[in-house]
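Late entry, written up from scratch paper. The run itself happened at the end of the previous shift, but nothing got recorded in the book at the time, so transcribing now.
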Amino acid sequence: MLVGILLLGYLKRVRVYEAFVAGAAEGFNVAVRAIPYVVGMLVALGVFRDTGALGLVVGALRPVLGALRVPGEILPMAIIRPLSGGGAMAVVADVIRTHGPDSFLGRLASVMMGSTDTTFYILTLYFGSVGVRRARHSAAAGLIGDFFGFAASLLVCRMMFGG
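Output as recorded:
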């Protein structure tokens, strides 16, 4: 692919290296504009976790999800994943360390990690970097997608691994 790009650029008489450097400079400028949004998101996540609000939400939802046979240990993953990929990875690592990689919970956490995305991080970074001020229904659509990703992960893991 790399050779193909260089060859196509040569045939079309495009200065490939100069175009690459211009694109890299533009990418750097986008990253610099996005830094305040990313810092704000990370601070909000830290406050949510460190104040105990995450624990309160998990505690409040545990009885409802228990009735639906959703393991309570996976609930922090479902809450943190739309906010932070790194935070969700820490939850997955903790679940795997506690229950083992071949346990139902370890597999479920891993499948959920790959089946959902960091909705608010994406909205913050991408919309903020290009100056979108009104995301309209993007957050709702992303969270609905995350919900169905979590539900499908639970269903598939139950079918594949029991539990």
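Residues 34-161 form one domain.
(Scratch paper discarded after transcription.)
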